[in-house]
Design a protein that fits this description.
Mean pLDDT: 85
Order of helices and strands: EHEEH
Low-confidence stretches: none
Helix content: 25-40%
Structural class: alpha+beta
Distance between the termini: 35 Å
Radius of gyration: 20 Å
Number of strands: 3
Strand order of the largest sheet: 1-3-2
Length: 96
Amino acid sequence: MRENVTPCTDTAACCCVEIGTVIDNSDCTAHWSGHFSDRATAEVMLAQLSDRAQRAASEPCTVHATFTARGTGVQLDMDFTFCCQAESLIFQFGLR
C-alpha cells in the first residue's frame, strides 16, 4: 500500500475530469500523412480515408489532400476537418 495517499471522498470517482476541459471544440481537424511508391496507390488511400472520415461525420467532413514527390515515391498529406472535435477524435481512434 502506498503511503501519503488520501482517498477521494468528494467525488463519485477518483481522477475524474470535466469533459469540457478535454474536448472543447478548439481542434476539429485531424492530420494524416503517408508515403507511397506511386501516386495511384496514394489516391487509393485518399479515397479510403475520405470514406472513413465521412462515415465518422454527422455533417460532411472537409478533406484537403496534398501530393508531394519525395525521392522515388509520393508523400500524401491529408487534413480532415469535422464539425466537432468529438468526431475528429472518433476518426483518429478508428485509424489506430
